[in-house]
Amino acid sequence: MKDKIWLSPPHMSGFEMGFVKEAFDSNWVAPLGPNVTAFENEMCRYTGAKNGVALCSGTAAIHLSLILLGVGYGDDVFCSGLTFAASANAIKYVGANPVFIDSDLASWNMDPLLLAEALESAHKKNRLPKAVIVVDLYGQCADYDPIIEACKKYDVPVIEDSAEALGAKYKGRAAGTFGEFAVLSFNGNKIITSSGGGMLLTPDSNQAAAALNLATQARDPAPHYQHSKVGYNYRMSNVVAGIGRGQLKVIDERVAARRGNFDFYQKHLGVFEGIRFMPEPDWSFSNRWLTCIIVDEAKLGVNREDLRLQLEKDNIEARPVWKPMHMQPVFKDCLSVGGRVSEYLFKDGLCLPSGSSLTVEQLHRVVESVKSILKTDG
After folding, report:
1. How far apart, in whole angstroms, are the C-alpha atoms of residue 229 and residue 238?
2. What is the CATH code of the structural domain delimited by 16-248?
3. Would you state the pLDDT for residue 377?
4. Which of 315, 268, 284 is nearest to 138 (CA)?
5. Nearest alpha-carbon partner for 85 in 345, 376, 323
6. What average pLDDT does the segment 23-50 reach?
7. SS3 of 182, please?
8. For residue 349, what is the enclosing H or E element?
9. Are 76 and 103 in contact (CB under 8 A)?
10. Where in the chain is the domain with CATH 3.90.1150.10?
11. How distant, in Å, are the alpha carbons of 11, 53, 192, 224 from that of 187?
C-alpha cells in the first residue's frame, strides 16, 4: 500500500522553530508574550485589518464577536447554511437562534439575493437578526458588496467567517477586512496552522480591547483578582503564536501551491464532461484551500460517494462538501431560507486532496485513482 495522501495536512515552513525557541529561551510559555503581539501585528499588516486578537480557536472568535454585538437569548442570527458546524455552534453558545441562508451557484457562498429577501421579511415581522455570519467557503470570499449593502439598509452587523480564506481577496481586498468582525482559523488543516488557534479581526480598537478582556477571563484592572462580568479562557499561547508567525512568512507560497493544485486537477480532470469545479467569479481571488468538484452521476456513471470510496481504496483521503446546517440533526428545528443549492452541492460535491506539500507524483496518483473508476472517456 502506498503512503496515505491526506486531504489537507500541515506544512511546516522551517521558520517555526526559531520563534518557538525564542519563547522557551525567554521563558514566555504563557497565553501572552512577544510572539502573540507580533503575530497579531503581522497578521494585520498582511490583511490590512486594523486590530487583531489572537485566540485559542476561530470558534472562540465567533463567540466573542456575538457577545460584543450584544447577541443573546432568543435573538436571531442569520448564517451561511453551507459551512462547518463551528459557524453555527457559537450562535447557540449565546442562546440565539440560527437562521440559515442558502448558497448561490456562482460562488457557493451566501446568496446575496436570498439574504436581502430574508432581511426584508424579517423587517416586516419586526424581527431583524442581531447579526449576519457570512462564511468565506473553501477559501473564496462571498460577494460582499450586495451583502453589506443589504445589511446596512437595516443596520445589521456582519461577522465575516474567514476561517478557510486567509490569502483570498474580494475585488482586490483581503479576506478578513469586511464587516464589524472577521474570524481566522489556524487549525491543523488550514492554509497556515499554529497547530490550533484563531484570530479575531476588527476595525474598532475599542472592540478589540473588549475582546482581549473577555478572552482573558474579563479581569478588572485591580491588584487582586476581581471580575465584574463573565470571561473566557480564550487567549492564544506564546508558543502557538510562534508557530503561526513561522507559517505566516510563507502564506503567499502556500496560496500559490494550492492554486497550483486546482490548476492541475482542472487540466487533468476538467476534460470529463461530468466533472465540474467550484467556480471563481471575476471578483474573486480564491486561496483554493480545498479543490472541490461536482460529480455528475448521469454523465460519469458513478456518484460522489463511489468516487470517494475509490480514492479511499487507493489510500487517498477525500471528503464530501460540507453537509448543510439545516440537514444536521442538531439544527433540524432551525429556520432555513432556501436550501436546495447547498443540498445539491453536498449530494454531488467532493473535496480532493489539496495540501500545499503535495508532489506532482501524488497529484498524478489522485488523478489516476479518479480515472480508474470513470465509465466515460475524457
Report:
1. 25
2. 3.40.640.10
3. 47
4. 284
5. 323
6. 96
7. strand
8. strand 349-352
9. no
10. 251-373
11. 12, 16, 8, 35
Query: Whose grid coordinates read 487549525?
Result: 187
What does each C-alpha distance from 11 to 106, 205, 354 come to in angstroms? Answer: 30, 33, 11
Through-space distance between the first and last CA atoms of the chain, rounded to whole angstroms: 27
What CATH superfamily is the domain 251-373? Answer: Aspartate Aminotransferase, domain 1 (3.90.1150.10)
- Which residues lie across from 132 on neighbouring strands? 78, 158
Strand partners, 202: 51
pTM over the 0.70 mark: yes
Q: What is the DSSP string of 185-232?
A: E--TTSSS-SSS-EEEEES-HHHHHHHHHHHBTTB-SSSS--BSS---
pLDDT greater than 90 at residue 376: no
Amino acid making up residue 363:
L
Q: How high is the pLDDT of residue 375?
A: 63
Q: Which three cell numbers stand for residue 78?
A: 442569520
* H helix intervals, the chain: 16-25, 34-47, 58-68, 86-93, 112-124, 144-153, 205-215, 238-248, 251-269, 297-300, 304-313, 340-348, 360-373
